[in-house]
Amino acid sequence: MIARPVPLDGLDAVPWADLAHAYGSAADVPAILRALARPGPDPEREERLDELDSAIYHQGGAVYPAGAAALPFLLELAAAPGLPLRAAIVELLGQFAALPNDMREPWSSDEHALSCRAALVAGHDLLVALLDDTDPAVRAAVADLLWEYARWSPRARDAARALADRDAVEPDLALRVSLRLAGARAVAGARASGSSSAAPRSPPPYAASSRRSAGTRTRSRSPAWRRPGGSTRPPRPGGTSSTRPSHRPRPTTPTRPGARTARTWRRPCAPCAAMTRQPTWTSSAP
């Protein structure tokens, strides 16, 4: 299918220059979104998405105003048939869907965090429709997203029902196993957090079979440091021979068909750069 340009209505109505992301002013975000919305070959498309990812999501430690403003446009890009890198865009959306499950107060009640959640809930029907996408990589990414989303969304039961319906007809065995594992993890996470709101508190009807299938899992979970509350932290930028220090390690091979390979990050944000500054030691020896 030949993709058509995505209109991104309302993009210019957002005061991007007044919003902030990890590197300062978000005035550069509209140009990145427009570049991602253009169909056809673009050798810099993946780098543009990486740049947007590191700017508005960074390492998941904060929700920036530009992130909340960009989500509706990312949803529009994810739903555009034939547009390149849609699965990767859904994965970026999935990172925002997972944040409410890990953030603590007062950050989880921050106005920008609430705006992100509202944008995802507003895109509920669009996200559910992606479960029937012709691209298995998109289906896999949105299934992971929806299980995270189902742990806090007011439409959690609708999301869980859509996932169960998809499982009943999904022809891709590896994807079906992955979907079941994600459901079992969501149930375990909801139980561990004690949340009474959104996630299904009992296993989905196929959770037992997913546990038996764990040995055949083809997709790995994100490392613990990818989200707030993780047990470890990534190597800090700097101290390497690379001219563009990496914010966080990435797998060198895709974890699913259509997934992106290792990403290169442009620069650390100011807080990360400050944390990597090396002290100057002086000797007290004569």
Short synopsis of the structure:
Helix content is 46%, strand content 1%.
Terminal residue distance: 75 Å
Which percent range fits the helix content? 40-55%
Based on DSSP secondary structure assignment, what is the total number of beta strands?
A: 2
- Beta-strand percent range: under 5%
**How would you sum up the major sheet?**
2 strands, antiparallel
How would you sum up this structure, described in words?
This protein has 286 residues and is an all-alpha fold. It has eleven helices and two strands; from the N terminus they run ββααααααααααα. A two-stranded antiparallel sheet has the order 1-2. The radius of gyration is 20 Å and the shape is globular. It starts with 19 loop residues before the first strand and ends in a 10-residue tail after the last helix. The C terminus is likely disordered.
